[in-house]
TrEMBL record:
The modification N6-(pyridoxal phosphate)lysine is found at K206. Residues 6-371 form the Aminotransferase class V domain. It catalyses: (sulfur carrier)-H + L-cysteine = (sulfur carrier)-SH + L-alanine. This is Cysteine desulfurase IscS. Master enzyme that delivers sulfur to a number of partners involved in Fe-S cluster assembly, tRNA modification or cofactor biosynthesis. Catalyzes the removal of elemental sulfur atoms from cysteine to produce alanine. Functions as a sulfur delivery protein for Fe-S cluster synthesis onto IscU, an Fe-S scaffold assembly protein, as well as other S acceptor proteins. InterPro entries: Aminotrans_V_dom, Aminotrans_V_PyrdxlP_BS, Cys_deSase_IscS, Cys_deSase_NifS_bac/arc, Cysteine_dSase, PyrdxlP-dep_Trfase, PyrdxlP-dep_Trfase_major, PyrdxlP-dep_Trfase_small. SUPFAM superfamilies: PLP-dependent transferases. Its cofactor is pyridoxal 5'-phosphate. The keyword Repressor does not apply. The keyword Nucleotide-binding does not apply. Homodimer. Forms a heterotetramer with IscU, interacts with other sulfur acceptors. It comes from Iocasia fonsfrigidae. Pathway: Cofactor biosynthesis; iron-sulfur cluster biosynthesis. It comes from the Bacteria.
C-alpha cells in the first residue's frame, strides 16, 4: 500500500508518538497481569494504571486522580456522562440541554434518552461561526433541567466554545455541566477547576495516544449511574478489566501533551494561519468556516469551496499523497451534508463542498507549501467539470 506522504487529518486520529508506544510495550508482554489480582506482575500493571491516572488528572488540573474514569474512548466517555447523569438524576428532572453542532456521540446519546427513556432535550442553535451563546443556555434552563452538555471545541470547524461562561451559569442554577473536550485536549490549556465543569470527556487517539481508550473526568460529588455493568473497577463506575497498555499509552500521551503544549501549538498555529491565508488568496469563491484567531483550534482549517463536492477534492488530494477530510462524520456513500455546516447556516450545496485540514506534530512548513501548490489546480479542475460552475 502506498502511504500518504502528507497527513492532514489529525482531528480524525493521530499517529501514536514513539515515546507512547515504548511506554506501552511492557504491558503487553511482561507486566501483563490483571490489575485486580494480587501477585507482582498484576500489581505492576495496577501501579501503571495509577500513574496514568495521575498524568491525566494533571493534564486537566483535576483535584484528585480519583476524578478520572478510564473508558474505551471519547464515545464511551460521552455516553457515560450523558446517560449516567440522566439516570442518576431522573428523580430531579428529565430535561437536558445541548447544541446542534455536537459530535454524534453526544447527539445520539441525547436522542437515545428521548426515544427510550422519555427525556426532553433542547438543541441550541449556534451563530454563523459556530458559537453557542451562554445567554441561550441560561434562557433554556428550566426547573427540571438536570444536565447541560456543550462541546469544548468543534471537531469540524474548530470553534472553541465559551465553556467558562456557560459553566458559571450552570453552577448558579445548580445544573450539572458536561463538556466533550475530545478535540480540545492537548490543543488548548484546560483546568477543570478554573472552568468549573463537572464532567469532561477525552480520547487518547486524538493526542498521539492509542485508539480505543479515553477518560471521563467526574468532579467529586457528581452523581453518575454506571453504563457498563460488571466488576468493581474504576470505583464501581465502569466495570471491565482495564485496558492496561492503552491506559498507559493515554497517560504518556497526556504527559507529553502537557509538556509540549506551548511550543507545539505556537508552531502549528503558524502553519494553520499560512494555510488559511494561502487558500483565501489563491482560490476564489471559498468560505472559511469557524472563527479566526484565538477562538479557533490551533490545528484546524476548514473551508467550503463553492460549486463542487468535498469528496472529489479528497480523492484528488489522495492521488497526490495528501490525506485530508471533508470534516463531516458522514463520509462517502452518504448524501447528508454535515449537521454542523447546516447549523451555521449553509445551504446544502455549499455544505457539500467542504474540506477540513487538521495539523499535527509531524506536519512541516514543506507540507503547507505543497498543499498550497496543488490545491488551487485541483479545485479548478473539479470546477471545470462542474455543471454548477461558470467562469
Ligand atoms: N467527540 C468528539 C468531539 C470527537 O471529535 C470524537 C472523535 O472524532 C469523539 C467524541 C469520539 O471519540 P472516540 O473516537 O475516542 O470514540
Amino acid at each position: 500500500m502506498i502511504m500518504n506522504k502528507i497527513y492532514l487529518d489529525n482531528a480524525a486520529t493521530t499517529p501514536v508518538a514513539e515515546e507512547v508506544f515504548e511506554a506501552m510495550k511492557p504491558y503487553f508482554t511482561n507486566s501483563y497481569g490483571n490489575p485486580s489480582s494480587v501477585y507482582t506482575t498484576a500489581q505492576e500493571a495496577a501501579m501503571a494504571v495509577g500513574e496514568a491516572r495521575e498524568r491525566v488528572a494533571r493534564l486537566l488540573g483535576a483535584s484528585s486522580d480519583r476524578e478520572i474514569i478510564f473508558t474505551s474512548g471519547g464515545t464511551e466517555a460521552d455516553n457515560l456522562a450523558i446517560k449516567g447523569t440522566a439516570m442518576a438524576l431522573k428523580s430531579k428532572g428529565n430535561h437536558i440541554i445541548t447544541s446542534k453542532i455536537e459530535h454524534h456521540a453526544v447527539l445520539h446519546s441525547c436522542q437515545y434518552l428521548e426515544k427510550y427513556l422519555g427525556f426532553e432535550v433542547t438543541y441550541l442553535d449556534v451563530d454563523k461561526k459556530g458559537f453557542v451563546d451562554p445567554i441561550d443556555v441560561k434562557e433554556a434552563i428550566r426547573d427540571d433541567t438536570i444536565l447541560v452538555t456543550i462541546m469544548m471545541a468543534n471537531n469540524e470547524i474548530g470553534t472553541i466554545e465559551p465553556i467558562k461562561e456557560i459553566a458559571k451559569i450552570t453552577r448558579e442554577k445548580d445544573v450539572c455541566f458536561h463538556t466533550d473536550a475530545v478535540q480540545a485536549v492537548g490543543q488548548i490549556p484546560i483546568d477543570v477547576n478554573d472552568l468549573q465543569v463537572d464532567l469532561l470527556s477525552l480520547s487518547a487517539h486524538k493526542i498521539n495516544g492509542p485508539k480505543g481508550v479515553g477518560a471521563l473526568y467526574v468532579r467529586k460529588g457528581s452523581k453518575l449511574t454506571p453504563q457498563m455493568s460488571g466488576g468493581a473497577q474504576e470505583w464501581k463506575r465502569r466495570g471491565g478489566t482495564e485496558n492496561v497498555p492503552g491506559i498507559v499509552g493515554l497517560g504518556k500521551a497526556a504527559e507529553l501533551a502537557l509538556e509540549n503544549m506551548d511550543n507545539k501549538n505556537k508552531r502549528i498555529k503558524k502553519l494553520r494561519d499560512r494555510l488559511i491565508s494561502g487558500i483565501n488568496k489563491e482560490i476564489d469563491d471559498v468560505i472559511l468556516n469557524g472563527p479566526e484567531g484565538e477562538k479557533r483550534l490551533p490545528n484546524n482549517v476548514h473551508f467550503c469551496f463553492k460549486y463542487i463536492e468535498g469528496e472529489s477534492i479528497l480523492l484528488n488530494l489522495d492521488m497526490l499523497g495528501i490525506a485530508a477530510s471533508s470534516g463531516s462524520a458522514c463520509t462517502s456513500g452518504s448524501l447528508d451534508p454535515s449537521h454542523v455546516l447546516l447549523a451555521i447556516g449553509h445551504p446544502h450545496e455549499i455544505a457539500h463542498g467542504s474540506l477540513r485540514l487538521t495539523l499535527g506534530i509531524n506536519n512541516t512548513e514543506e507540507d503547507v507549501t505543497y498543499l498550497l501548490e496543488v490545491l488551487p489546480g485541483i479545485i479548478q479542475k473539479i470546477r471545470d467539470m462542474s455543471p454548477l460552475y461558470s467562469v
